[in-house]
Amino acid sequence: MTEVTATPDLYLSIDSLWKAFGDFLALKNISLDINEREFVCFLGPSGCGKTTLLRAIAGLDLQTKGTVMQAGKDVSNLPPSERDFGIVFQSYALFPNLTIEKNIAFGLENTGRSKSEIAVRVAELLALVGLPEQGKKYPAQLSGGQQQRIALARAIATNPGLLLLDEPLSALDAKVRVHLRHEIKELQRKLGVTTVMVTHDQEEALTMADRIVVMNHGVIEQVGSPTEVYREPASLFVADFIGEMNQIPAVAGSGDTVTIGGATLQSQQHGFSAGMHVVAAIRPEDVIPHGDGARSPGAPDEIETPENAFEVDVAEMEFLGSFWRCRLRHEIFGRDELIADFSINAVRRLELAEGKSLTIELPQSRLMGFAPAGEA
Amino acid sequence: MTDLSADKLPAGPAIKGKLSRDDIIMRLGMVVIALYLIATLVFPLWAMLSKSFSTFQFDLGAYELQISDEQGKYSGNIVTPAQLNAELLVLGEADLIAGSDSRMGLTQFFPDFSFRSPVMYQIRNTTETGRFLVGSELKTGTDWLELDSNTFRRVQMRPVKATGLGNFVSYFSTPALFNSIKNSLLIAVISTVVTVTLAFWFAYALNRSCMRFKGFFRLVAMAPILVPSLLPGIALVYLFGNQGMIKELLFGASIYGPIGIVIGSVFFTFPHAFIIISTALAISDARLYEAAASLRSTPWRTFWTVTIPGARYGLISATFVVFNLVITDFGLPKVIGGQFNVLAVDIYKQVIGQQNFEMGAVVSVVLVIPAIFAFAIDRLVQSKQVALLSARSVPYQPKPHRSADRFFLVYCLLVALFIVGTLGICQFAALIKFWPYDLSFSLTNYDFDRMDGGGWGSYYNSIKLGLFTAVAGTCVVFFGAYLVEKSNGFKTGRALFQMFAMLPMAIPGMVLGLAYIFFFNNPANPLNFIYGTMAILVICTVTHFYTVSHLTAVTALKQMDREFESVSSSLKQPTLKLFRRVTVPVCLPAILDISIYLFVNAMTTVSAVVFLYSPKTSLASIAVLNMDDAGDIAPAAAMGMMIFYTNAAARIIHLLVSRGVLQRTQAWRAR
């Protein structure tokens, strides 16, 4: 191993990591840097390798090839007990026959701390996770959310440099999950501990992470901040996996145009050579409604003939509480429908209803071109 | 970000993890227990197998003789016993087949031999490896040895060892021996059909009807587990034997033989079949019955399309377990089999009766085949049963049905009468002074020290064996199961260990016991010193009952969160601390179950230990066998019932301890 010059805040560095289970490659040449105090989420569908990667970082299941550097030290082949991390599992993995206090104290024993020091630290941690009175209870007497907080307290008890969270919220009710999401994020910010969380829940990743690592079939599809990953997906997979995305078969034009069913539309720069089959993609909320040609009172001034604008029929409308999801038809889409999310105001203003028609605009900056799935 | 070229693992060696201290400790532990299983199971079985293929034969051409005249003058004429035999035809081909300990004199080749004659003899081996005895002195080498007539009559040839199928050939050419295969299979099949049928309806009544006294019936059904398998044989002798109370009911047929073995086998295998079938019936899904009812299925049709398929794995499993128990059982056919030979008893007769160890090994090999077959099918079926369980199943709640409930109550009462009656007869017999002549009650039959069977000492030995087996066995089994279940990597080692752990189930007790003789009684074996001690009985019993204990431990361990070890190592705590603080306390109920299982079986087992006890380490179950053999049937019954009461007491203590321990250490289970 050559000498590594760690930038001041580089904490975890994964280089060319491979993991093979027999002939199956679970991780293919993964390289990733994680900075100190950063909260990183591994996001992807089940079987994408995200948990395998986490377990390799922990040393629980060793990678087949590649290196893991933690705090400037090569830990690639070390057993978990010789690495520096705390871990929380989906199942909480609390010791059922030990009280909450003893669970939290488990890792504090044999570390040269006196009994009273341990007791002080346990009380401190219980207060930190907001369960100061529960120390004498057994895990089974707590709710799932409370148990997960205890597991968290146990994991951070020894002040590890790295906190690993393996789908920590997946076993919880939706309400508890949202609440705990926020709490874990708060706690992480307060402690400043570098954290890696594995999740298949995009909402969880978007709300909690500083950076998201989107994985699929053992490779990293994209690394970026939540907004980057959402607004500028690097591949059709990322675009499809995170949020909703219209996917329209198209043919690439020169540089910044795509042709959909004969109509040429302005798009972002896509880098495909003209004539290639691509997928034109736009998020439902990026579709701009313009009414049926007539200006509506109170609407912002519009360009006379906006680019990428055309008239569509409203085939179906679905009320989803805070907005309307509309299925729009146009001959260029063939038998497919364009999905657009319109605000309640817009629907009221434009007096939209099933069967009516309206002009929509697909803004050039939000219309993207991707290689079709399977060709990536 | 996607590297398109990256879908081939680069060449070069995979990363080798550094082993932590825990990894090393756990691997060492696994190696130690695997070595234990190899020394106590694999090697003995290997010794037995090779014994069955080693043949011994007298080689009459291997010696040369010179005979002087009455003046002591030699003519220089050298003869071999082979030449003499060719002239005189003293021995046929079959007479030359021998065992390892056989010896044969030479005087039979000299029709006018007299030990008072002044004729002198000279003898030598024709090869360096030849052997003969003069008295008890072994002579090898090719030097001539001169002997007078009186000494020459004490010359004995020793057989030559070879490897081959000779033992099997002679086994299958002896009808008296290979008929036992047919007998054993016949008995096993009939007993299995009867037991499984009886147990199915008993379990059905307990799980699917609303009859009363279910707890009582459940208790009674389990009672036969607490006694040696030969005890029902003694009861049958009292009922139907030559002086039996109700022998007229057999209309002249003899209880000594297949009838007795079948009835006794039904008695001692009933609980095993009942547990398995009852478990299968208990997990059936009520939703299927609701669906059947809504489709207007008749009860008969529902029974065949829902009940039986739901319990089919249980039924198949019970069938093979019972089959295995019956075909490998030794105690019962020994007591009640009469002239009806079965395989397990043949092993005993060959080894103890005729000292023909090679033939004993051959019969063992023959017996192992159906046992392994039954075992393999049972394992296959059980692995499927797991997949049948569904978390969403709704337990079936039987509804009262007056006539059916009454029918089942009568049925269960009859079965309970059979079980309780059998035990009752034994207890009655034990208290009667001298059946059938003096029917007054007395305790003379409990004066075991005056009987031929080891006396009260054997009873205390049994308790000692039970306790040692329970303690040592539970430790070895549970720790071994933990290492297999929870250690990382080392895949081949773990798979091999699993295989060793499953093997004892397929090995009949008689076979194991005999294998132990071959292995441990070999003076060249450094472990020879444990032969004839309590230690070998403990080791043999632990090994004999290893599999069920191991499976119990593994089941309990599988219910533990897989990630406990990960959490513990991330907290930098030794795995053994986790084992002591969490694993053992959480698994305590299973650990107690294993220990009572081992204790009860150590108290009742006959088959494996019958070859291994010494006068100092005689056991209660062996005493039952030996007293029965000696005609002291009443004391045998008394000792058998002592085993029953001891096991019943042990069960009660186990229940109380479990409950107490649960209350103290398992408070966390309550929400």
UniProtKB/TrEMBL annotation, chain A:
GO terms for cellular component: ATP-binding cassette (ABC) transporter complex. The keyword Transferase does not apply. It is an enzyme of class 3 (hydrolase). Coiled coil: none annotated. Its EC number is 3.6.3.25. Residues 12-242 form the ABC transporter domain. Keywords: ATP-binding, Cell inner membrane, Cell membrane, Hydrolase, Membrane, Nucleotide-binding, Translocase, Transport. One of its GO terms (molecular function) is ATP hydrolysis activity. SUPFAM superfamilies: MOP-like, P-loop containing nucleoside triphosphate hydrolases. Belongs to the ABC transporter superfamily. This is Sulfate/thiosulfate import ATP-binding protein CysA. The gene is cysA_2.
From TrEMBL, chain B:
CDD domains: TM_PBP2. It is found in: Cell membrane. It comes from the Bacteria. The chain crosses the membrane at residues 24-47, 184-204, 216-239, 259-283, 303-327, 359-377, 408-432, 465-484, 496-517, 529-548, 586-613, 633-657. It is a multi-pass membrane protein. Its main location: membrane. SUPFAM superfamilies: MetI-like. One of its GO terms (cellular component) is plasma membrane. Residues 181-378, 459-654 form the ABC transmembrane type-1 domain. InterPro entries: AminoethylPonate_ABC_perm-1, MetI-like, MetI-like_sf. This is Putrescine transport system permease protein PotH.
